[in-house]
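Listing S7. Sequence submitted for prediction.
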Amino acid sequence: LFLDGCDTVGLPIKFIPPDAGSYRCQILLKSPCDVRVYEIECLVSKDQVDAELEFLTPAYQSVIQNIPINNTSSVDWKLEAKLEGEGFHGPPVINVGVGETVLYPLTFNPVAE
């Protein structure tokens, strides 16, 4: 446990799920004058796949790569995109409903050869 400068205490938890699924647990915290039970549920989807995109375009001409985002969960997603690297652009936020696939339009505008 560690103090963060406020009246709170951080409780680091390490969770390594063996497979996709729903995992529930209870955390019991006791002190001389208080007892608290926290119930936690973790929903784990399939392994995340690393992807690599290669952009080939003539100098100074932009190219758009539509990246499919498939929501196979049971809740709607509001995803925030953080793009790093010169010349890359795309919407800062996209919404993907349950069971939907939305294309994220990643644009690359090269400024040099």
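Caption to Listing S7: primary sequence and predicted structure tokens for the chain studied. Residues 16 and 77 are 23 Å apart (CA to CA). Residues 63-108 form one domain.
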